[in-house]
Input
Amino acid sequence: MLKGYRILDLGQVIAGTIPGLVFADMGAEVIKIEPPQGDLGRNPAIAGIGDVSSILLTFNRGKKSVVLDLKTEEGKAVFLDLVEVSDAVVTNFRPGTMDRLGLGFEVMKKRNPEIVFVDSSGYGDAGPWRDKPAFDLVQVAVSGHMAITGEPNRPPARPGTPMADISSSLYSTIACMAGLLAKAKGHGPAHLEVAMFDVQLAMLGYISTMYLNRGDIPEPPGSAHEYMVPYQAFPTATGYIVLSPREERFWVKMCEAMGIPEYGNDPRFKTNDLRSENRAELLPVLEKILREKPAEEWIEIFEKAGVPSAPVNTIDRALENEQVKEREMIRQYEYPGSGTVKVVGNPIRDLTLPRNPDPEPAPPLGGDTERILRDLLGYSEERIRTLLNSGAARANTPT
Output
């Protein structure tokens, strides 16, 4: 779908690399510009699979790797040559980094008057927190997310996945798409900024609106919901399940399935507002009944009755089931020196195709440097050798 677009991906680790991943999955040519030591996400000490980090294998599939030392004049010149023939540049450096390198938006715009530049950082270019370091844990803490995650009266908890990194990078992807759409309508160039902190505030959703307009400060709800009852995880004889009878018709069906049909129209519990008001009286009754049967049996009962429910799956069960198989969500590719790598595939399906294509592998560090310089930029062999010998560029460095 995005074949013909070329994206320069200067992103690091997770927050900066997902935009390029999305574009690569959808057919764009994504050139990953890496420093001589490589993206920090290559470190196999973090989530390693053998000698390779799963961060690299997950978030950089389908990209090409070009190593440039952007602190050298020769490396900067190559980068600007690439800008000239590309559609967008995506980074997640600290504010002002590209300007300090002499490669900021104004410089890029002179080489490519239609360039789209997406600049992501922790707190953005303005504000007293501008130069503070920002990582996923810092962001979920300072933005209020940790204070409303976890069980009541327990220490704060972080989400089980790096949600600040992932959500910020998805907003960067949207920003890049918007810039490219504007460019297609003749409205380029575009310089778009995405601050992780701003994204985390946006991700608070209606919770922030409730505070701003009513002063509500929520407590950690565990798996429960502050407004919907029941809407949470419950223990059974063998494990946890969740129940979500958000509409009254589901509430009635749930009561019938649990053998307490009288609760469906009980004056104390007939509506969600009443159930919320009387949750302390209702929940122990539900918990007692649900502990009497194994999770698998309850799920079968609730599914037959049409009650929204699910097991609280461990990751193996989440990734290995008939829905995942039918949707072909697990894909694989061959990574040089490591063999077959399995990954979760692109969740965006092109329904004009019989199936989404399999992903291309993540690139070895500098594995595409020489070919890009030669075939895309038309550099002579002599100039390529000079760049490699000077250290301004590197090629085929082991991962």
